[in-house]
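Exercise 7b. Backbone tokens:
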């Protein structure tokens, strides 16, 4: 029997780097508060484009060693975020990066895009039943921007959550467990527009500037149901994590570029759409805590730079443990 922290967050992503770009602030904040943050990455990102010239030999059309290299980048990023539980779906190398939509790599035997959905989801069911997360974060059905691995990661996450709750599905993987809240990543339009205005004014080093339309999952502000604000400390951790993905991301202050060399803002606030479970919005109608409303987790929502919990009737908050299933 093992002990689990009171609050447990699971994130499902397609490639190393997606977690830091989308959820770096959220992961750093909850890890710092003592929550169990579990990252499941579905591929090694073998088909990514390599930015630094000195590492160009890693590319799939040359040495094809980018996947192994990115395992190390991801480990460094997790150290920056304070996250200790990161895994690859089915084990490292089980599924390969499928490349961009329509690329010949989509049809390779181990491409994640070709994975059998229930087989891939079963790997996630094992994780869900082990760590028993109250909250799951993944992409929207379009994967944010249409990359086949992101679409597949969404499907696997949603199917995994469904199957984990079914007692008759693979009882060998542990007792059924129902995730209380599921969120999809999104970006609030006003934040994105404001970020590009800052970027344009700042005059950064990137050869070009992206546009609002290049940012995945931009939605009208009114559709956003939860916003996690990292503050300077967790935003710095996110920035460090993004820098750790050195082959994929070039960071310049509060801005970054992917391999297209187009600058875009690095966000210290991360936005979510609640698609399963009960919203427990505070003032302004938006949740500021992904665990809001979940029994037994509220008192551990210590915030602020001191890290000191406010006494709210349940003083032991984040150190309170729950007995895990065998
Ligand atoms: Zn990706």
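Sequence design result:
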């Amino acid at each position: 029997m093992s002990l689990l922290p009171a609050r447990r967050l699971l994130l499902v992503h397609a490639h190393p780097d997606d977690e830091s770009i989308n959820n770096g602030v959220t992961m750093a904040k909850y890890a710092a508060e003592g929550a169990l943050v579990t990252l499941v990455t579905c591929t090694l990102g073998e088909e990514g484009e390599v930015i630094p010239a000195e590492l160009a030999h890693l590319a799939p059309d040359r040495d094809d060693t980018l996947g192994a290299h990115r395992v190390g980048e991801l480990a460094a990023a997790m150290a920056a975020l304070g996250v200790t539980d990161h895994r690859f779906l089915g084990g490292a190398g089980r599924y390969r990066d499928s490349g961009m939509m329509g690329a010949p790599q989509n049809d390779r035997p181990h491409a994640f895009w070709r994975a059998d959905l229930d087989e891939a989801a079963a790997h996630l069911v094992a994780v869900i039943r082990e760590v028993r997360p109250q909250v799951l974060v993944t992409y929207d059905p379009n994967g944010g921007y249409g990359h086949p691995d992101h679409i597949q990661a969404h499907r696997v996450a949603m199917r995994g959550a469904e199957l984990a709750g079914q007692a008759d599905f693979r009882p060998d993987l542990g007792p059924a467990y129902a995730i209380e809240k599921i969120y999809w990543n999104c970006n609030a339009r006003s934040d994105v527009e404001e970020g590009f205005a800052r970027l344009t004014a700042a005059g950064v080093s990137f050869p070009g500037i992206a546009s609002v339309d290049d940012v995945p999952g931009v939605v009208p502000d009114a559709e956003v149901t939860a916003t996690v604000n990292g503050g300077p400390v967790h935003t710095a951790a996110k920035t460090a994590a993004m820098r750790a993905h050195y082959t994929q991301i070039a960071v310049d202050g509060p801005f970054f570029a992917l391999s297209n060399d187009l600058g875009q803002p690095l966000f210290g606030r991360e936005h979510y759409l609640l698609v399963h479970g009960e919203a427990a919005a505070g003032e302004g109608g938006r949740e500021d805590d992904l665990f809001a409303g979940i029994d037994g987790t509220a008192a551990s929502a210590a915030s602020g730079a001191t890290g000191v919990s406010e006494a709210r009737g349940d003083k032991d908050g984040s150190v309170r443990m729950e007995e895990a299933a065998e």
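Instructor comment: The domain at 8-187+219-249+267-285 is CATH 3.40.50.10320 (Rossmann fold). The first helix runs from residue 18 to 32.
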